[in-house]
Amino acid sequence: MSLLPQTNQLRALHTVVRNRGVSGREFEVFSRRIIRLLLEAGLDLLPFEEREVTTPVGETYHGLGFTRPVCGVSVVRAGESMEAELREMIPGIGIGKILIQRDRRTKQPELFYHHLPAGIAASHVLLMEPMLATGGSALAALDVLRKAGVPDENVVLVNFLASPQGLERLGREAPAVRIVTSSVEDGLNEHAFMVPGIGDFGDRYFGTVATTS
């Protein structure tokens, strides 16, 4: 697991987005700043190989490039918050979607829909799932990728908040998957929500409910 450096700047951003009284627009803008940091860190976890290019002055630059194509897969709906940033960072990148909803009574994930980019089995995948609470939804999404031929070692889970329980479960059931997160929370409450937490990330980001804690 890779935790973003806990700088004063990152803590200040978290202070804004965790505030129950922040406006929806501020929540979106400040969340996107954290998301950009997460995506950059996630891409840096992928393997690179040497590449050479000719500069405008006719000289050779000895650089690097990804060893495989890269695509993104978002876990709907919260994961869609990361799509725009990733598409700005890598123009033309393929984006897949997986719709998983947690049963409010059993707390178990249910798969409803998935559509993945062509050639995903030969690609590195940024799996965009902002909330890692129990780990159930992330593992259900990972199962979809596995069935599509994506090996765990080609997956980087890009995550906004993670619980110790969720990290422990993924480490046990998917040890080859790399994880990048901006915060490891104190734990889960009796409703399986992370604390101190951020509330329902998807609802707050897309403005579908009143801002709550």
UniProtKB/TrEMBL annotation:
The terms under GO molecular function for this entry are: uracil phosphoribosyltransferase activity
Question: What EC number is given for this enzyme?
Answer: 2.4.2.9
Name the keywords, alphabetized. Answer: Glycosyltransferase, Transferase
Q: Where is the Phosphoribosyltransferase domain?
A: 5-208
Q: Provide the top EC class.
A: transferase
Write down the Gene3D superfamilies for this protein, in alphabetical order.
3.40.50.2020
Zinc-finger recorded as keyword: no
Is this entry keyworded Protein transport?
no
* UniProt-listed NCBIfam families: PRK00129.1
What is the protein name stated in its UniProt record? Uracil phosphoribosyltransferase
According to its UniProt entry, this protein's organism is: Streptomyces zhihengii
Classification lineage: Bacteria, Bacillati, Actinomycetota, Actinomycetes, Kitasatosporales
